[in-house]
Amino acid sequence: VQLVESGGGLVLAGGSLRLSCTASTRTFSDYAMAWFRQAPGNLREFVAYISWSGDVKRYEDSVKGRFTISRDNAKSTVDLQMNNLKPEDTGVYYCAAQYGGEDDFGSWGQGTQVTVDS
Question: Which of the 8 DSSP states describes residue 71?
Fold first, then answer.
């Protein structure tokens, strides 16, 4: 499945951004989805996860209470609402898809840049 992210940009600390990821598949509900990010010089890290139904959500500790992941299976989209952004949230944000019972996220988007200026 092809994934395309949008919504990144430059924002001041304390501001908000909403990222969106659109999947090119008619069976979007077969996939669990997640957001990852990679800061300069760092490894890619997990940010948030949502199950195929939307019933299960998980977050990296530093974003809990600030970020919210959601999905619309009718539109084949998954969003990441990011509030109270901090400079350490800066990085390239990637959308990823995990098919069925597979262990890995087999599909990745190209990423969208988020820069939080203090």
Answer: E
39-73 pLDDT per residue, tens: 999 999 999 999 999 999 999 999 999 999 999 99
Residues 97-114 have pLDDT tens digits of 999 878 899 999 999 999
The strand pair at 67-72 and 77-82 is best described as antiparallel
Residue whose structure tokens are 């069925």:
100
Q: How far is CA 10 from CA 49, 54, 55, in A?
A: 24, 29, 31
Helix H or strand E encompassing 102: none
How many Å is the maximal CA-CA distance in the chain?
41
